[in-house]
Design brief:
7-stranded mixed beta sheet, single chain, 2 domains, 30% helix, alpha/beta, 12 helices, binds zinc ion, Rossmann fold, Metallo-beta-lactamase, Chain A, globular
Length: 419
């Protein structure tokens, strides 16, 4: 018998966590955080009640809570080597920004890193009575789907995935296998993304028009994944030399270059990195405001991070532009800005005068890709839809039921199921 317990990320984006329980093993699939004013964690589970952890990719909504399990215990965790390197960078930064709210310290991160088990795509692991392996998820470098087998059941956890090729990573392939259960993300279950090439061209056109009018462009972007994708696009259209990138860029780029297998085109990536200037401190930051036309900086949803510093200086100039390129969780600074045109600057709500626009450069499968993914699987898996706003989880679950005749639910937080 295999049981699935949905501890977090059910009907929401953030704090993904699922416990897979077989006869002899209890494996956690991700243990993320939701980044609000105070970070929110998945349902509590004691370290003594798990045997190991699998991290699908480094983003904090999948990895940010994992150090909790190293306060007293030493459980192994499994990830691709690149995911482990990037997770270390992101959690270290998370500790710097939010330590006040966190139940762990740097010491726990160090203890965690001593329990790493590196796993490349396709390698088999036998863990008690569970066998599992990673498949490329196409979301960001190092990202993985997890295929698990226990008690004669085959289960797929997609993590975050993308079946469309991006500049940074190869797309995920639909596994031509039959599963008994599939746990699938649904971030964009009701939205199709625009065609990539024409979106890139529109993005570049808009940037050029701001630069031609002596304006500056702020592109808030996640430090890992979207920042490098944006840098690659700017480079491809000859704008790389006009851009600076802020926020752990050096560390992240080094990690990526140390694991070139996870990049679609490592040679081009090295060129991109060499061309774009990195912001290394406050001097560079002020300098960037004086000189450079394009500033790429976290956080992607304008929730904390150096993007807020740039917002203070750029938001009130009508010659400037704020171009959002990430998913905006409802309630985030970026979502509010898009909806109302307002942004809190130095504690005051201000009507932003810079041009604000969102470009849907997603690293998540869109509606059609999510549906095609489920269609492409063999067999009759039970489908559990998570990692989306409630209406998106519902919509994809309904598609699986009505169009594919599958058993499908959008679990609630805390619900458990038997596969
Ligand atoms: Zn992600
Ligand atoms: Zn995610």
């Amino acid at each position: 018998m295999v049981r699935l317990h949905f501890l977090g990320g059910a009907r929401e984006v953030g704090r993904n966590a699922i416990l897979l329980e077989s006869d002899r093993a209890r494996l956690l699939l991700d243990y993320g955080v939701k980044l609000n004013d105070a970070p929110e964690f998945p349902a509590h589970i004691r370290a003594t009640d798990i045997d190991g952890i699998i991290i699908a990719h480094c983003h904090l909504d999948h990895s940010g809570g994992v150090p909790i399990f190293y306060l007293s215990e030493r459980k192994p965790f499994f990830a691709t080597p690149l995911t482990t390197e990037l997770t270390k960078i992101l959690i270290k930064d998370f500790l710097k920004l939010s330590s006040y709210f966190l139940p762990f310290e740097y010491l726990e991160l160090e203890k965690m890193m001593r329990q790493r088990n590196d796993l490349g795509y396709g390698m088999e692991v036998k863990f008690k009575d569970v066998n599992f392996r990673f498949l490329n998820a196409g979301h960001i470098p190092g990202s993985a789907m997890v295929e698990l087998e226990a008690d004669g059941k085959r289960i797929l956890y997609t993590g975050d995935f993308n079946t469309i090729k991006t500049r940074l990573v190869h797309e995920a392939k639909i596994p031509r296998r039959s599963y008994d259960a599939v746990i699938i993300e649904s971030t964009y279950a009701t939205t199709d993304h625009p065609e990539r090439r024409s979106l890139e061209e529109e993005f570049i056109r808009e940037i050029r028009s701001v630069l031609d009018n002596e304006g500056k462009v702020l592109i808030p972007a996640f430090a890992v994944g979207r920042s490098q994708e944006v840098m690659s696009i700017l480079n491809a259209y000859g704008l790389g030399s006009k851009a600076v990138v802020d926020g752990m860029a050096r560390l992240v780029n080094e990690a990526l270059m140390n694991h070139p297998d996870y990049l679609r085109d490592p040679k081009t990536f090295i060129k991109v990195v060499n061309e774009v200037k990195e912001v290394k401190g406050w001097r560079d930051r002020r300098e960037a405001l004086r000189r450079n036309g394009i500033i790429v900086s976290p956080s992607g949803m304008l929730e904390g991070g150096n993007a807020l510093f740039y917002m203070e200086h750029l938001a009130m100039g009508e010659e400037n532009a704020i171009f959002l390129v990430s998913f905006q969780i409802p309630g985030s600074g970026g979502a509010k800005l898009l909806e109302t045109g307002m942004f809190t600057i130095k504690g005051r709500d201000e009507a932003v005068r810079a041009k604000v626009k969102r470009f849907d450069f997603s690293s998540h499968a869109g509606k059609t890709q999510l549906e095609d993914f489920l269609k492409g699987l063999e067999g009759k898996p039970d489908v559990y839809v998570i990692h989306g706003e409630p209406q998106n989880c519902e919509a994809l679950a309904q598609f699986a039921r009505d169009e594919l005749g599958l058993n499908s639910v959008a679990p609630n937080q805390g619900e458990s199921f038997t596969v």
